Amino acid sequence: KDKKVVITGASSGIGELMAYEVAAKGGKPILLARSYDKLLKIAENISEQTGVTPLIFKLDVSDGDAVEKVFTTIKSSVGNVDILINNAGYARFELAHEATMETVESMFKVNVFGSIACTQAVLENMLTEDHGHIIFIASQAGKLATPKSSVYSATKHALLGFANSLRMELANTGIKVSTVNPGPIRTEFFRIADKTGSYEKNVEKFMLDPKVVAMKTIGLIENPKRELNLPRWMGIGTKLYQL
Ligand code: NJP
């Protein structure tokens, strides 16, 4: 309650749903994404439904200078944040030899560098206060791999490496670090990742309900865990997908 929670990639999917969940629990959502119009609409709806008015900022997390500016503005508007959820991310599913270096760099810039930049932007204040919680939305693709996801999988492996090392560095502080590793979730993600729709069709029966993923992730704030593995994926029975 009353916690200030920054969520990156809050304009759709689980980021948007986590924003509702935070507000419903009496926290203050601070929502970041490139699509400002979507954030405006989401903030309006949240305000109507819960009476909590989220703060919203337009941000491309792959722009390091913009990240610094937005977090400075957040601090001057509401003070130090309690929780950062590094959720902004995307994939392009294609064969390794088909991925251009432009795609490779762009995916790393958003999924990895963006999360690192946002983390650095809150860390100093968290260390001063000896208080905070940083949650990384990684993926089962950061632990396992499937064909056509080599670059995406590499970004999520990198993100987990960063988070796991950070957790060790912060072990004797009041700052917690959690990672969330979901399997496929029913969001816009697949339409961006694979315009042909074939990947989505393949994993259709293993899809997680985004509301459940959002609820479980926000649950980490009250009951922190190092790692939240939301059911394992492909090739494992659908039964495991009942959360
Ligand atoms: O996807 P989607 P999800 N700067 O597409 C934002 C991971 N995950 O909710 O900027 C800032 O609905 C984008 O906003 P906008 C996945 O890797 C997913 O499923 O306005 N924000 C939007 O709000 C990702 O890390 C699955 O376009 C940027 C949001 O990111 C997280 O879950 C499985 C941005 C994406 O919302 C949320 O994805 C899994 C940028 N440069 C992990 N680029 C899955 N869905 O199957 C994008 O294991 N965003």
Automatic annotation (TrEMBL):
Q: Which InterPro entries match?
A: NAD(P)-bd_dom_sf, Sc_DH/Rdtase_CS, SDR_fam
Pfam assignment, any one: adh_short
Keyword Nucleotide-binding present in the record's keywords: the answer is no
**Recorded GO MF terms:** oxidoreductase activity, acting on the CH-OH group of donors, NAD or NADP as acceptor
**Would the keyword Oxidoreductase be found if you checked this record's keyword annotation?**
yes
Q: SUPFAM superfamilies from the xrefs?
A: NAD(P)-binding Rossmann-fold domains
Domain of life where this protein originates: Bacteria
* Recorded GO CC terms: membrane
| Keywords, sorted A to Z | Oxidoreductase
Q: Which family does it belong to?
A: Belongs to the short-chain dehydrogenases/reductases (SDR) family.
| Name of the protein | Short-chain dehydrogenase/reductase SDR
Higher taxonomy: Bacteria, Bacillati, Bacillota, Bacilli, Bacillales
